[in-house]
Design goal:
heterodimer; A: mainly beta; five-stranded mixed beta sheet; 45% strand; B: four-stranded antiparallel beta sheet
């Protein structure tokens, strides 16, 4: 199983940037880094993914280190609705599945 | 983006009965779908990979005769929990791979066996 390491939990003040780190030292050269989040009792929601360049979309930014062994998901202005468990996963786009680690429980505080 | 529709969202069944969960890909074809199980305060665990027109591939430790998977069309995969017991109570989630978009997940099914 592709293994990632994330902090168990983090807090962030509402309106501030939330920076969620992830270590994926075993990532292979053709594997992407995916970020998903899961709000309580719902299915995981796709956030962003990248290979080696930094990526940005309407939800977040993804910063991948040059050696690709770690990455950071940035939510630029966290809201209460961003409270969720955030999962960092690495895998090939042609892979048949994604293996989830334990994720980071982000709590956005008013 | 691509949507995976999962039903029912909640189901309560008696011990010993069977429950079927449906997962449909809307507006796209999914030759492969994945079934996960999630216990409270735990991460998602892959149970099996559902392949259209062929047998499902089960992860180690998952009983194929208990968790029947059927993927008869390019837009529908079903998971049937047979002879359900209280320990099968869990949150079941399906997903499909969408080319160029990654993976999209259903909204999950909360199964409670009483």
């Amino acid at each position: 199983d592709a293994k990632t390491t994330q902090p168990t939990s983090m807090d962030c003040a509402e309106g501030r940037a939330a920076n969620l780190p992830c270590n994926h030292s075993t990532i292979s050269g053709n594997e992407y880094v995916y970020w998903y989040r899961q709000i309580h009792s719902q299915g995981p929601q796709y956030i962003i993914h990248g290979l080696k360049n930094n990526e940005t979309n309407e939800m977040a930014s993804l910063i991948i280190t040059e050696d690709r062994k770690s990455s950071t998901l940035i939510l630029p202005h966290a809201t209460l609705r961003d409270t969720a468990v955030y999962y960092c996963i690495h895998g090939r786009t042609g892979a048949n599945n994604l293996f989830f680690g334990t994720g980071t429980r982000l709590t956005v505080i008013p | 983006g691509a949507v995976v529709s999962q039903h029912p969202s909640r189901v309560i069944c008696k011990s010993g009965t069977s429950v079927k969960i449906e997962c449909r890909s809307l507006d796209f074809q999914a030759t492969t779908m994945f079934w996960y199980r999630q216990f409270p305060k735990q991460s998602l665990m892959l149970m099996a990979t559902s392949n259209e027109g062929s047998k499902a591939t089960y992860e180690q430790g998952v009983e194929k005769d208990k968790f029947l998977i059927n993927h008869a069309s390019l837009t529908l995969s079903t998971l049937t929990v047979t002879s359900a017991h209280p320990e099968d109570s869990s949150f079941y989630i399906c997903s499909a791979r969408v080319w160029g978009e990654g993976y999209t997940f259903g909204s999950g099914t909360r199964l409670t066996v009483v």
